[in-house]
Design a protein that fits this description.
Distance between the termini: 17 Å
Helix content: 40-55%
Largest sheet: 4 strands, antiparallel
Oligomer: single chain
Number of strands: 4
Shape: globular
Structural class: alpha+beta
Strand order of the largest sheet: 2-1-4-3
Number of helices: 4
Number of domains: 1
């Protein structure tokens, strides 16, 4: 069974597989440790770092692969819900914690 990371904020919640959450947090320049948090004033820089990282800018096409396999989902697609949560938190000036 895969470990999960729960992201929580006043603007919403999100659950991700730990391996993907840790990878995305590290792309944002964060430690990837669980539990932890990010303050609203730090979200913009973290999102910029992640969005400019080559693994999210240039990702392989999945057109020739089956969409039924979990490993076929690219990291950019996995990042979208987390980035959306962080954007909402930033706009409402609230932190996001994860455990």
């Amino acid at each position: 069974m895969s470990a999960l990371v729960h992201f929580e904020s006043r603007v919403g919640n999100l659950i991700m597989f730990k391996q993907h959450a840790t990878q995305l947090l590290k792309l944002m320049g964060l430690s990837g440790d669980t539990p932890s948090a990010i303050l609203p004033e730090d979200i913009s820089l973290a999102l910029t770092r992640a969005r400019e990282h080559p693994s999210l800018v240039h990702y392989p096409s999945n057109d020739s692969k089956s969409k039924d396999n979990d490993s076929d989902v690219n990291l950019r697609t996995r990042a979208k819900p987390l980035f959306d949560l962080l954007e909402r938190a930033k706009s409402r000036n609230c932190e996001v914690i994860w455990r």
